[in-house]
Design a protein that fits this description.
The chain is mostly helical and 93 residues long. Helices cover 89% and strands 0% of the residues. Helix 1 (6-59) packs antiparallel against helix 2. 3% of the residues are buried.
């Protein structure tokens, strides 16, 4: 029967600590991805809501070209926000 020396005990302790660190790192990455997704979803919803409000405000104008430009700007803002969040989601995953 082999007896464990002091150096074997130290090596086992270091290996166990390394495994715990690796587990913590994996959990940290998973949590960061969830937080990033929550942030991106909130950002996208806020920008889309702002664009919707802007479009409604310019649509209430009695001037046709103002309403048209407001609608175009709102559409562009929504599309840019969706493209941005989609791209970042791909980079994060």
């Amino acid at each position: 029967m082999a007896t464990q020396t002091k150096s074997d005990t130290i090596i086992d302790s270091v290996e166990a600590a390394a495994e715990r660190v690796a587990d913590l790192q994996e959990k940290s990455v998973a949590t960061s991805k969830k937080a990033s997704e929550a942030y991106l979803s909130s950002y996208e919803k806020a920008v889309v809501a702002l664009a919707d409000t802007y479009e409604k405000a310019t649509g209430a104008s009695k001037i046709e070209w103002v309403a048209s430009i407001g609608s175009l700007q709102a559409d562009a803002t929504r599309e840019l926000a969706r493209a941005y969040t989609s791209t970042v989601r791909e980079l994060v995953s």
